[in-house]
Amino acid sequence: MPITNEQVTKHAFLRLLYADSYYPDHVVDKARAILLRLCERIEAERPADLPALYALTHAATEEFNLLEADFDAAGSCIETVAREEIAEDFWRIAAAYGFQGADIEELIAPREW
Fold first, then answer.
1. What pTM was estimated for this model as a whole?
2. Which tens digits make up the pLDDT trace of 52-65?
3. N or C: which end of the chain has fewer CB within 10 A?
4. 32-41 contacts: CB < 8 A, separation 24 or more?
């Protein structure tokens, strides 16, 4: 399902990670795919409120938790810069879909990174 939200389609997700060779592009590509799948789910399911949105973002966060192993295998990790960039992109997605009041920490509450 193609993403229709113009704010999302024009945004360069995980820009800082792509710009830093510490984060391998092939792993960052997987991370970006998680964010894009989140956008697709939001557009398909149209969450009516923050709890419904948080259910979707928590599922995506769990995918990031699993991705930590890929970062480790590539000699990298989800550390401070990556955490901040990922969290900011989660919030940017929430805002793009009308949830400007979303709590950034709640969006990624189940994170292990």
1. 0.96
2. 999 999 999 999 99
3. N
4. 34/60, 34/63, 34/64, 34/67, 35/60, 35/89, 35/90, 35/93, 36/3, 37/63, 38/90, 38/93, 39/3, 39/5, 39/8, 39/93, 39/96, 39/97, 40/1, 40/3
